[in-house]
Amino acid sequence: MKKQVFLIALLAFAAFSCSKKETPVEKESNTMLEEPKVTVEQQNAEVKVPTPESGLEFINASDCRTCHADDTKLIGPAYKDVAAKYENTEQNRKMLAEKIIKGGQGVWGEIPMAPHADLTQAQAEAMAMYVLSLKK
């Protein structure tokens, strides 16, 4: 009796171990078809002359749109509200650029703006130039 159980177990083991193993087929990824995400660091690391257009590119490549929109207050103020508050002067562009880089709190409420230390002064000034260009 023990021999029969042993032989059946041995035959079952041999049958299963010799069968073809199916490996899961990896699904093809579409990542090659997607456009690569452009980060702020990958964009023009040095901006020679800040422009509103380059500022918009940096805004869209950064996390700014999480808290700001052009026309609508989200977590932070709408860009048009910022433009209405400040004249488009070099002094104001530099001040806003510093707030973009270092972060800030209190001007538009108690929710702090996160610092963006990875930006250069020229990149932040281009971003401020875009925001201030929205003045009506």
From TrEMBL:
- What modifications does the entry list under PTM / processing? Binds 1 heme c group covalently per subunit.
One Pfam entry name: Cytochrom_C
Arranged from A to Z, the UniProt key words for this protein are: Electron transport, Heme, Iron, Metal-binding, Signal, Transport
Leader sequence residues? 1-17
* UniProt xrefs under InterPro entries: Cyt_c-like_dom, Cyt_c-like_dom_sf, Cyt_c_ID
Q: Which Gene3D superfamilies would you find in this protein's record?
A: Cytochrome c-like domain
PROSITE patterns noted in UniProt: CYTC, PROKAR_LIPOPROTEIN
Q: Which GO terms describe its molecular function?
A: metal ion binding
Q: Give every Cytochrome c domain span.
A: 50-135
- In this chain, heme c is annotated as bound at 64, 68, 113
- Protein name as catalogued: Cytochrome C
